[in-house]
Amino acid sequence: MNRLSSFTKYQRKKLQLTQEELATKAGVGIRFIRELEQGKETMQLDKVNQVLALFGFSLSPDNQKIDAYDIFWNYFNKAVKITLTNRVIKYGIIIKEITDKKENKISAWQFVPNNNAIKYQQKPDNNLTEIILHNDIQTIEEQ
């Protein structure tokens, strides 16, 4: 999966659409949606933008950074080690994505540090969690 494919799949599932429904709404074929979500390397940009337009986005250059949707699909509810841009290292579990409603994208993560994980598991309490801004994440890996 690449950034575009994981973003598309995340947005489609968030809107509770099947691949067929997304294809119909975007005016593209089901095969195109499948290839887009599988990360096919060569795609027609006009069709990609037709799909992204349904989510309020278009394809444009962006700075290279960690893909929020990659985190969602690959590190969500798993024990992780996060290195922040200020070099602080955090160990714990990402339990929820926080979406910026204005920009319609993931902007932060609700995180349970390892030292609070057992207490949180016994009795979920937001006081045992912290918020990590997505832009503050330099690297992430499984523990």
Please provide a brief summary of the model.
This protein has 143 residues and is an alpha+beta fold. The protein is built from six helices and five strands.
Strand order, main sheet: write it out.
4-3-2-1-5
Question: What structural class is derived from the secondary structure elements?
Answer: alpha+beta
Please indicate the percent range of residues in DSSP E strands (runs of 2 or more). 25-35%
Overall pLDDT, averaged?
A: 92
Silhouette: elongated
Individual helix count: 6
Sketch the topology as an H/E string, one letter per element: HHHHHEEEHEE
SSE layout and pairing:
Layout: H1 3-14, H2 19-26, H3 30-38, H4 45-53, H5 68-74, E1 79-84, E2 89-100, E3 105-113, H6 114-122, E4 130-133, E5 137-142
Antiparallel strand pairs: 1-2, 1-5, 2-3, 3-4
Helix pairs in contact: 1-5, 2-3, 2-4
